Amino acid sequence: MLTASQPLPASLERVAQRFQQIAESQRRYEYLPSFAKGLPPFPAEQKVAKNKVPGCVSQVYLTASLQQGKVIFQGDSDSQLTKGLVGLLVKGLNRLAPAAIIQLKPDFIRQTGLDISLIPSRANGFYNIFQTIKQKALVYHLAEACLAT
Known about the structure:
This protein is mainly alpha-helical. Helix content is 50%, strand content 11%. The chain has one domain: Sufe protein. Chain: A. The N terminus is likely disordered.
């Protein structure tokens, strides 16, 4: 398992560094929706119950696929701030190996400084999105392990 002393994956480290460059917590919060703009359009036919992130106040959808041993995520939300959280996680975790994703802990959010800006329902949404990403990566990790035996 990753601990605080172990480095984050480079893609997630870059995301955290972007937020660290913003001194004011309110400005970090306002920066969050920019990650929503980086998400590709989410196919309407993928907005189904199996792709819905449970436990979120907003409607959040997330899909994953495995390409050349790396997980590719796609997500959407009806809330721009929540969609920003989805975008942050997709940008930071996209194209990582499943094993790298399942080892992560959600406490990396502290490195962004967003942990003090998120209201409880958004913090809960972040955690639920993160857990769904880990669950999807775990499915691919287990499938790889079964194929290897």
